[in-house]
Design goal:
- By secondary structure, this protein is mainly alpha-helical.
- Among the domains are: 13-77, Arc Repressor Mutant, subunit A, CATH 1.10.10.10; 187-301, Four Helix Bundle (Hemerythrin (Met), subunit A), CATH 1.20.120.
- The protein has 15 helices and 4 strands.
- The strands form 2 sheets. A two-stranded parallel ribbon has the order 1-4. Strands 2-3 form a two-stranded antiparallel sheet.
- Helix 14 (250-268) packs antiparallel against helix 15.
- 39% of the residues are buried.
Length: 308
Amino acid sequence: MRKINNFPSKPTSASVIIGVARRCTDGADVYELSTYICRSKETTINAVKMAKMLSMINENEGVITTVAECIKDCSASTRLDDSTILKKWSLKWQPFVAYLSFIQDGCNNNEASSRLCSYYDFGRPRDVVETIMESMVYNCKLKGSDDDHICKRPEVFEESLFDSEINSEVDIRLYLNHIFGDEAINNISEDVMSNLVVALSQYKTDPRNAIECSGRALEDHVREMCIAKKIDLSKKKGLIEVSESYFDHYKYKEIAKSVGHIKNMAGHGIESSSGIRWKLSPIGALSCILMTITIINASAKGCEKNEF
């Protein structure tokens, strides 16, 4: 069971959580935050715990500072509302995505929170976990008038990959959660997931960048797995070389290297032998992304066998 740190005891509104992040751009303590958001010390501490849990802020010797990416999200120039910012950071937190997937599968809030507590140790009673998760769904504005369908089911999302619709980040995250499953998801980092989300959201509008993001996701995953297995990559550069060192099964090795070649088509653009720029299509980008997802899934599950 995975331990979750900084889980709050009571729900907090999006405006208060984002208010903490905005005030901490140049550092603040709990007293200064309490004064800024006009809330009690208890409410302020809960908001700080929530923001820390979602990796929006860091705390060192009582001084709380907002991480660089969140500072950018909170700046006036981005014009993002509080719910949009909170949704972005909540979707980076795997227990929240898991909770949404349980709701998507037909569980009620009680059942979803019970399932969640079987995987994670939140250090709080189940009813508190349920209340916090419900409040996150509400604060992120993920639940509309139809409470049973806060997002597309995986099979519906998969069908929409091939039509003209651009899918939302929550749909993409839940689709990836469905594909990877509980066994693999804990072996896949947020950096890898974020690159896959960008790839699936952009392959129709920017196939070149989508291919680069999917290739980056695979390379990051392979490097992370090599670190875990203590495989030396100090003299290896790029996806093709690191795949050569990591994969045991020669077919997976060659498939991963092919993704590296496609990534080079997108990154380098111009073929050295002909001087002609590669033209990259949405269907080509999607094929590369889905192949990347399949390889990462097999690697993360440790089932690099005769399965694809």
